[in-house]
Structure to design on (494 residues):
C-alpha cells in the first residue's frame, strides 16, 4: 500500500521546483474541483476520490422547541466549547453553552452535531426529509438543554447530561414539530416512548451521549468500562468540559460505564454511573466526585 | 524511492524555509516530515473526515512552498506554519470547500485516497495529537496555558492576557517560548 503522505511529499517536492522565483511563468491549474456538498467515500476498499466539500449546506433552523428558558434569561449566543467525533462518521458533535446575555450565575448547555462553530441537526434518518443539510439549533430551539449554576470562566460546575439515547441526527425535539412547512420527522426516543403504537427508533440511528463539566481544574476525563475507554482533555477555560459519543451497544458486556476525572493537583475521583444499577446489583464501587455533583442535581436545583 | 535528507533533518526551520524559497526540495522534505504529524492532527481535530484533513494538510504545505520567501524569521516558524494552517481552514470553512489556491499555483495533481490510505491519515493524526499532548504536558503551566489558548483555542493575545492576568506582551513571550520548546521536544521525540 502506498502511503498517501509519501505521494504527497513527492508531488510537493516537484512543486518546489515549480515555485522557484526564476520560473515565474503562470502555471495551469490542474486541481479543478467541483463544488460538491457532501463528502463521498467509496467503501469496501475501493478508491475514494478525496472529498473536497467541507460544510453541509445550511438548512432551515430548528424551530422553537417550546421549552421554557429559565426565568429572566435572555440568552447569549451559544458557544461551542468542545467537540467529539461521531463513532460512525459525519459531522462531529458539539457541546455548546450560553448564559444570560447580561449578568452571571446561570449557564445552560446543549449538544448536537456541530459545524462552523454552531450546534445543529443533520437532515438524516428521516429528520428534515433526509435533506443532508445542517439545521442550526439555538438556545430556544434545543430540547436537550440543561442549566446550572456557575460559569465556564470561573470553573464552577454547571451541570451535564446523559440518559436516553439521542438521535444520530442530533435532533432531540418533537418529530411532529414543523419546520419549513413540514414535520421535522425522524425518530426521537424520548418522544417515541410517550406515544403508544409509534415505532421504536432503529438502534443504528441512535447515539449514547455523556457530557458535562467537571470543574475548571479538571485536566483529564475518561469514560468507559472494560470494553471501551475514551479520554478527553478539557480545553482550558471550559470548566472541565467533557463530551463522549458512543455508538449503540459500544462497550456492551464490559460492565457499567464510569466517568473518572483527574484534577490538576493529581487528585482523581469517579463520577456517577452511566447506567442506573439493576435490581439486586451492587450500586458500584464508584465514589462521586466531591467537586462534581451528580449531573442532574444542579439542573433540578437551579431550573425554575 | 524517496530520497533521504539526513544532513537537513536537524537544521532549524528558518534555514529550511530559506532553502525552500531558493528551490531546495530536500529542505522542503525535511520541513514537511518534521511538521506533518502536527499539521494533520491540527486539521483532523477541526474537520469531520480524514480526507478533508488530508486535503487541508496538502494545501497547507503547498502554501508553505508558495510563501516560503515571505517568512522573515521574526517569529517561530511553527507559529508561521500554523498561521497558514489556520488561514486555510478558515478560508475553507467560509467557502464551504477546501481551499486549493496553493496547489493550483503548483499545478499539483490530487492524490486518490483508498480506505487504507484514510486509515493512515487517522493514524498520523493520532500520532500528531499524542506527540503534541506529551510535549505540551512538559511545558511549565503558565507557558502551556498561553500556547493552548493561542494555538488551540485561537484566542487573541488580549483575551489571553485578561484570562491569565498578565500583559499581552508577556503572553506573546510565553507563546513564542512555548512554541520553541514544543518544536525542540517534538524533534527529540522523532
Amino acid at each position: 500500500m502506498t502511503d498517501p503522505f509519501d505521494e504527497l511529499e513527492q508531488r510537493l517536492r516537484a512543486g518546489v521546483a515549480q515555485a522557484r522565483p526564476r520560473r515565474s511563468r503562470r502555471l495551469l491549474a490542474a486541481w479543478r474541483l467541483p463544488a460538491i456538498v457532501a463528502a463521498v467515500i467509496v467503501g469496501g476498499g475501493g478508491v475514494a476520490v478525496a472529498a473536497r466539500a467541507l460544510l453541509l449546506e445550511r438548512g432551515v433552523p430548528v424551530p422553537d422547541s417550546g421549552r421554557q428558558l429559565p426565568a429572566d434569561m435572555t440568552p447569549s449566543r451559544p458557544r461551542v466549547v468542545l467537540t467529539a467525533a461521531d463513532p460512525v462518521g459525519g459531522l462531529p458533535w458539539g457541546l455548546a453553552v450560553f448564559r444570560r446575555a447580561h449578568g452571571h450565575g446561570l449557564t445552560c448547555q446543549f449538544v448536537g452535531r456541530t459545524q462552523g462553530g454552531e450546534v445543529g441537526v443533520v437532515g438524516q434518518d428521516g429528520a428534515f426529509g433526509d435533506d443532508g443539510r445542517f439545521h442550526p439549533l439555538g438556545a430556544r430551539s434545543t430540547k436537550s438543554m440543561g442549566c446550572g449554576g456557575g460559569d465556564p470562566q470561573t470553573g464552577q460546575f454547571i451541570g451535564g447530561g446523559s440518559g436516553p439515547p439521542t438521535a444520530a441526527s442530533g435532533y432531540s425535539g418533537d418529530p411532529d414539530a414543523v419546520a419549513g412547512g413540514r414535520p421535522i420527522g425522524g425518530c426521537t426516543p424520548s418522544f417515541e416512548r410517550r406515544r403508544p403504537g409509534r415505532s421504536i427508533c432503529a438502534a443504528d440511528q441512535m447515539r449514547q451521549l455523556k457530557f458535562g463539566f467537571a470543574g475548571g481544574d479538571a485536566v483529564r476525563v475518561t469514560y468507559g468500562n472494560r470494553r471501551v475507554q475514551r479520554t478527553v482533555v478539557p480545553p482550558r477555560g471550559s470548566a472541565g468540559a467533557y463530551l463522549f459519543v458512543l455508538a449503540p451497544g459500544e462497550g456492551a458486556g464490559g460492565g457499567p460505564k464510569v466517568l473518572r476525572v483527574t484534577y490538576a493537583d493529581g487528585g482523581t475521583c469517579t463520577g456517577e454511573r452511566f447506567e442506573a444499577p439493576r435490581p439486586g446489583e451492587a450500586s458500584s464501587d464508584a465514589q462521586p466526585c466531591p467537586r462534581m455533583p451528580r449531573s442532574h442535581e444542579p439542573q433540578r436545583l437551579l431550573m425554575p | 524511492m524517496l530520497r533521504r535528507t539526513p544532513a537537513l533533518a536537524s537544521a532549524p526551520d528558518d534555514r529550511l524555509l530559506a532553502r525552500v524559497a531558493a528551490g531546495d526540495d530536500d529542505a522542503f522534505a525535511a520541513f514537511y516530515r518534521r511538521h506533518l504529524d502536527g499539521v494533520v492532527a491540527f486539521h483532523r481535530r477541526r474537520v469531520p473526515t480524514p480526507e478533508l484533513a488530508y486535503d487541508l494538510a496538502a494545501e497547507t504545505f503547498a502554501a508553505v512552498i508558495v510563501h516560503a520567501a515571505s517568512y522573515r524569521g521574526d517569529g517561530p516558524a511553527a507559529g508561521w506554519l500554523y498561521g497558514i494552517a489556520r488561514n486555510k481552514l478558515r478560508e475553507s470553512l467560509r467557502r464551504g470547500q477546501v481551499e486549493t489556491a496553493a496547489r493550483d499555483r503548483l499545478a499539483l495533481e490530487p492524490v486518490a485516497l483508498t480506505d487504507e490510505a484514510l486509515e493512515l491519515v487517522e493514524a498520523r493524526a493520532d500520532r500528531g495529537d499524542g506527540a503534541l499532548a506529551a510535549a505540551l504536558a512538559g511545558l511549565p503551566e503558565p507557558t502551556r496555558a498561553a500556547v493552548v489558548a493561542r494555538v488551540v483555542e485561537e484566542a487573541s493575545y488580549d483575551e489571553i492576557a485578561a484570562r491569565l492576568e498578565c500583559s499581552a506582551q508577556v503572553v506573546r513571550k510565553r507563546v513564542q517560548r512555548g512554541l520553541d520548546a514544543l518544536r525542540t521536544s517534538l524533534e527529540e521525540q522523532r
Notes: Strands of chain B lie at 113-114. The longest strand of chain B covers residues 113-114. Chain B touches chain A through 62 residues (CB under 8 Å). Chain B is about 70% helix and 0% strand.
